[in-house]
Amino acid sequence: MVNDDDESRVLLKFFLDNVGYAVDLAPNAEEGLSRFDRNLHDLVLTDNSMPGMSGVEMAHIIKMRSPTTPVIMFTGNPPKDHSAVDLVIAKPAHLIEIKEAVEKWLAPQ
Question: Is the entire prediction scored with pTM above 0.85?
Fold first, then answer.
């Protein structure tokens, strides 16, 4: 989970941890990229508007490193270019919507 808002980041981690997912946190895109390991992380959940690098810029780099890793963006500021983002969930949204999106993208194909 990459989000510069501490409260949102911690709340989403708490929620997703409690429904069975292991969640790593990063407070910005640069740190998210430095922690990303395609062999460890099955999905990336990110905001778009963050200081420095945006979520969509980070998504493009993740897709270059690991084209099959799903990137879900949960944001109040969706990017115009969705080419590196698999799903955009507009804020505000219920946590169940995020859980269902994660389940869908992690389901065996």
Answer: yes
